[in-house]
Design a protein that fits this description.
Blueprint: E1 7-10, E2 13-16, E3 21-24, E4 26-30, E5 33-38, E6 49-51, E7 56-59, E8 61-66, H1 80-85, E9 88-94, H2 102-110, E10 116-122, H3 143-152, E11 157-163, H4 166-169, H5 173-187, E12 191-194, H6 202-208, E13 214-216, H7 235-242, E14 246-248, H8 258-266, H9 293-298, H10 307-312, H11 316-321, E15 339-345, E16 349-352, E17 358-361, E18 364-372, E19 375-378
Parallel strand pairs: 1-6, 2-7, 8-9, 9-10, 10-11, 11-12, 12-13, 13-14
Antiparallel strand pairs: 1-4, 2-3, 4-5, 7-15, 15-18, 16-17, 18-19
Helix pairs in contact: 3-5, 6-7
C-alpha cells in the first residue's frame, strides 16, 4: 500500500555497486528501512516525495578515514553536520581513540551522532597525538588492550590503527608495525597503517602487511612514497596490491599529489577506497584542499574513474574492507535507509592537491540530500 511509505525518492537513477544496479528507479522508505526499489512507485498517499530527477541515488557514502573524537583528541573535530550535508552516513575514525578511552568515544561521539561514527582503535593506549607523538615511548603500545577493545565493541570497532610517521613514533616503527599486525590477528580485523615520512621504507611496510590490511595515505608525496626517486612503482608495493593489501586515499592536507596519483594509477595502483581524512588540524578554513568527501571524489573524475567506480570505493568496497558489507554500503530493500542523493553538476571546478597542483575539471559531484536511518538532511551542494 502506498500510504505505508514515509518517503519516496522519485525520478532518480539508482547506482548501487554492491548489486551492480545502475538504472532509473524510485526508492521507497518506511520508518528507518528501505521498503521498495522499483520503477515508478505510485505517489498517492505518500507522506513525503522528493523529486530527484537528474540525480543519482546511491547507498549512503562511507568516509573511511576521519578524526571525529572532538573535544578529546587533538585531531578530532565535530563532523556530524558536515557528513549529513555531504551524503556521508557512516564515518570511520582512524585511531583517535585507544583502548583506554574508547568508552569515551562511544559515549561522546558514537551515541550522540546521527552519522554512524565507528572506529579503528589505536595501538597506542590513548589514541593518536601530535606533540609528543603517541608512540615515541613504545610502552604506550597496547597489543592486548587494543585487540580486546575491538573484540568487546564489535558494534563500533572495526580494526587496529598505527601511525608510522617519524614524529609520532621515532625509532619504533618496525616493532609498532609488528605489534599492530598481531593486534589485528588477535581481534580478527584489518590493521590500518598511516604512511608518509616514515623511518622504514614503503617496500618493507608493504611487504609486511597481510591481505586485507590497509595502507592509508597511499598516494602521499612524503618520502618514502610508493613511487621511487626514478618515478617507478616499488615492486613490493605492486606485490602487496596483488595479494590483497587495501590502498586507501586518506587525502588530508599533505597526502595527495596529482602527478604521483596519475603515475601510480598508470602502474595499476587504483585506489580500493577513497576517503578524506578530515580532522581538526587542517588549518585552512573549510578544511582547505580537502573540503569534504564529494570534493575528494570529484578529483577522480579527471583521473579517469567513472562515477560508478568512484561510488563503489566509498560504499561497497569500503564496507567490505572491514567486513561490514551486511550492514552498510548497499541500497537494498530491508536494509537501513542510508542513502545519498548526488548530482554531477556541469560547471567548471578548480581542484587542488596537497603540493600546489591544480586540475580544472568541467564537472563536480555534489550532495543534494542525505537520508540517514530514514531521516532526510539537506545537502550543501
Amino acid at each position: 500500500m502506498n500510504e505505508t511509505f514515509d518517503l519516496i525518492l522519485s525520478g532518480g537513477t539508482v547506482v548501487n555497486p554492491a548489486t551492480k544496479t545502475n538504472e532509473k528507479l524510485d526508492v521507497g522508505v518506511t520508518g528507518d528501512r528501505v521498503t521498495a526499489i522499483q520503477a515508478s512507485i505510485p505517489l498517492t498517499g505518500v507522506k513525503r516525495v522528493i523529486d530527484v530527477t537528474g540525480c543519482y541515488v546511491t547507498p549512503g557514502l562511507i568516509d573511511f578515514h576521519v578524526h571525529s573524537y572532538w573535544g578529546v583528541n587533538p585531531y578530532g573535530c565535530d563532523l556530524d553536520a558536515l557528513c549529513l550535508a555531504t551524503g556521508v552516513t557512516s564515518a570511520l575514525d582512524a585511531g583517535s581513540a585507544g583502548p583506554v578511552n574508547l568508552l569515551g568515544f562511544r559515549k561522546l561521539v558514537y551515541e550522540r551522532s546521527k552519522t554512524r561514527m565507528i572506529a579503528f582503535v589505536a595501538l597506542a593506549q590513548h589514541g593518536v597525538l601530535n606533540e609528543p607523538g603517541e608512540l615515541l615511548n613504545l610502552g604506550f603500545a597496547d597489543l592486548d588492550g587494543s585487540a580486546q577493545a575491538v573484540i568487546d565493541n564489535r558494534d563500533l570497532g572495526v580494526g587496529i590503527k598505527v601511525r608510522l610517521h617519524k614524529k609520532s613514533i621515532g625509532d619504533n616503527s618496525r616493532e609498532a608495525l609488528r605489534l599492530a599486525i598481531k593486534a589485528g590477528e588477535a581481534s580478527g580485523t584489518p590493521m590500518m597503517v598511516h604512511v608518509g615520512s616514515t623511518a622504514i621504507g614503503m617496500d618493507e611496510i608493504a611487504d609486511t602487511l597481510r591481505p586485507g590490511d590497509i595502507i592509508t595515505h597511499c598516494y602521499t608525496p612524503q618520502k618514502p612514497s610508493i613511487i621511487d626517486d626514478k618515478g617507478k612503482l616499488l615492486p613490493l608495493v605492486r606485490k602487496a596490491k596483488e595479494r590483497g593489501v587495501i590502498f586507501d586515499v586518506g587525502h588530508a592536507g599533505g597526502h595527495f599529489d596529482f602527478a604521483l596519483v596519475e603515475r601510480a594509477m598508470g602502474e595499476g595502483i587504483i585506489p580500493d577506497i577513497i576517503s578524506s581524512d578530515l580532522h581538526g588540524r587542517l588549518s585552512q578554513p573549510g578544511f582547505g584542499v580537502v573540503g569534504d568527501l564529494p570534493t575528494v571524489l570529484t578529483k577522480f573524475l579527471p583521473l579517469g574513474l567513472s562515477f560508478a567506480e568512484i561510488i563503489a570505493k566509498c560504499t561497497a568496497d569500503a564496507a567490505r574492507a572491514v567486513g561490514w558489507q551486511d550492514r552498510i554500503g548497499s541500497l537494498e530493500v530491508g536494509r537501513e535507509a542510508d542513502i545519498a542523493v548526488l548530482q554531477i553538476v556541469d560547471e567548471p571546478v578548480m581542484l587542488h592537491d596537497s603540493v600546489g597542483g591544480e586540475k580544472l575539471h568541467k564537472q563536480r559531484i555534489a550532495a543534494r540530500w542525505t537520508v540517514r536511518a530514514g531521516e532526510v538532511f539537506q545537502g550543501r551542494g
